[in-house]
Amino acid sequence: MSNWLMAGLLFTPLALATTSLLLDFRQGRALAWLGMVLQLLVSVGLWGLVKQEGGFYYSLAGWDAPLGIELRLDGLAVTFLLLTTLVASGCGIHAGIYLKPDKPWQRYFWPLYWFLWAGLNTVWIGGDLFNLYVGLELISLAAVGLVALGGQAEALRAALRYLLAALLGSMAYLLGVALIYGQFGTLSLAEVAHQVRLMGQAELMRPALVLMLVGLALKTALFPLHGWLPPAHGIAKSPVSALLSALVVKASFYIAARIWLETGEAVASQWMAQLIGALGAAAVIWGSWLAWCQPRLKQVVAYSSVAQIGYLFLLFPLTYGVDASVSLQAQQGITLQVISHALAKSAMFLAAGNLILAVGNNRVDALAGVSHFLPFSLFSFGLAGVSLMGLPPSGGFAAKWMLLQASMASGQWWWILVLVGGGLLSAAYVFRIYRASFLERDEKDHFYHPDRRLEVVAMLLAVASLGLGLAGSQVLSVMALPFEEVQ
Question: Which of 80, 164, 404, 444 could bridge across to 124 with cysteines, CB 3.0–4.6 Å?
């Protein structure tokens, strides 16, 4: 059973991407909806398998590491697989209605969409460092293509800036991988971690760790390496922006977190952990301030992503040099934060796209009067904002509460100020949008009403981000399951 599920997970998106190249937009959309169902079935099947039997390593074609490609499927991986299925399906359904099939370049959305999905699946289950690099490159190239979709000059400039940042990040990461292979003779993350911890080779690992973390921080858009993100997310089509913010930047963070949790305790130092946390804190404050200042709606949401990414990097100081129970609590809090942010930010971008479609303008001040005309999308935007602010009962509240407890238990009280202050700043830019939308128009309204299905998709994702706080324990329960070897 696991063989068939793993094959479906990896090869179905690639087959769909290749097939979509031969189809027009409408045919690609029909095929995509079928593919979403298949991916949902595979993800749920793997979730049930891990829940019942525990996590496992899987060697493709029976070739063990270091000769073969090693895949790792555990509770965290299947959680991200299921999250990808939910968010990517929602964005795909929205895109199928939002994008105009009469424009010839729109047909390339579906091949890029499926290549992106294949890369995400590869990253979530990758067990060796080079395989993670391959998945990351597939994601980056597909994401750059999606940003450039449409061919406008501004979109092409943002895509080229994104491509440059992605290539620089990849070069730094790949150089670190090369150093590791030269020093340890293997690319299996588990084997490298074993040698570092038990054979006292931390000195050899440290330069490689720094290079990889810098490259991954650039691809994740951690402050001050975030300059490429707001133009790319702000100019892309709304379903594309939702995919980029909800899933793409999480892939590079996921790899950084895996490497840190496997090797950081033995290789890194306290100052390195605190420095990364300080950059995350600066991202929260600076990104939130810039989000409040932006005149365009999608730029508000894009700079909000810069701020919300900062919270994720509190994982590094809260898991270094602390008790195992505190480290586990921090890991669980960050996991909930990633899931909550993915659901909320995808809902927020899709709702923002609906609002822009209705008023025909991307400016915040153009939203005046839209509260009477499109309250459903505005409500979805607000529900997503509740999770970003960290208010109960949202997933964002559960995540920040766990991070607050980890901060207090580890004696690092200064991160509490970041968590509380970031929530207040999030409230400021969310309520700024609401204030603009509740102003009255002097002239007669001439709004365009988008398809109701677009509003339903955004609402479902927003409700999911809100309900995550009530189901957080069930989501986290699968993370502590044991491992076994499977060929």
Answer: 80
Number of H helices and number of E strands within the chain? 21, 3
Long-range contacts at 320-326 (CB < 8 A, ≥ 24 apart):
320/264, 320/265, 320/268, 320/270, 320/273, 321/265, 321/270, 321/273, 322/406, 322/409, 322/410, 323/409, 323/410, 325/409, 326/406, 326/409, 326/410
Give Cα 141 to chain centroid, integer Å: 16
Token pair for 148: 């450039």
Which position has the token pair 């509003």? 455
Residues of the chain with confidence (pLDDT) below 70 = 1-3, 59-68, 150-151, 199-202, 441-446, 479-487
The answer to whether residues 74 and 225 touch, using CB atoms and an 8 Å cutoff, is: no
Listed in sequence order, the residues at least 6 apart from 238 whose beta carbon sits closer than 8 Å to its beta carbon are: 94, 98, 298, 349, 350, 352, 353, 354, 356
| Cα gap 126→122, rounded to integer Å | 6
H-type helices in 54-128, by residue range?
Answer: 75-98, 109-125
Nearest 10 degrees: Cα torsion 50, 47, 41, 15? -70
- Closest of 83, 235, 256 to residue 159, by C-alpha: 235
CB 444 within 8 A of CB 38: no
| pLDDT at residue number 316 | 94
- E strand residue ranges, 399-466: none
Q: Do 372 and 439 form a contact (C-beta atoms < 8 A)?
A: no
Q: Where are the domains of the chain?
A: 1-268, 270-476
Half-sphere exposure of 196 (CA within 13 A, CB side): 28
- Check if the beta carbon of residue 94 is closer than 8 Å to that of residue 237: no
Reference 222, options 169, 263, 259; nearest CA is: 169
Do the Cβ atoms of 133 and 176 come closer than 8 Å? no
Q: Is this structure's pTM higher than 0.85? A: yes
- Give the span between the Cα atoms of 483 and 487, in whole angstroms: 13
**Edge-to-edge strands, sheet with 483-486:** 70-73, 55-59, 483-486
List CB contacts of 380: < 8 A, sequence separation 6 or more: 347, 348, 350, 351, 455, 458, 459, 461, 462
- Per the rule left: phi > 0, alpha: psi between -120 and 50, beta: everything else, 360 is left
Residue 249 pairs with which residues in a beta bridge?
A: none
Q: Record the tokens describing residue 307, joined without a space.
A: 């701020």
pLDDT (0 to 100) of residue 485: 42
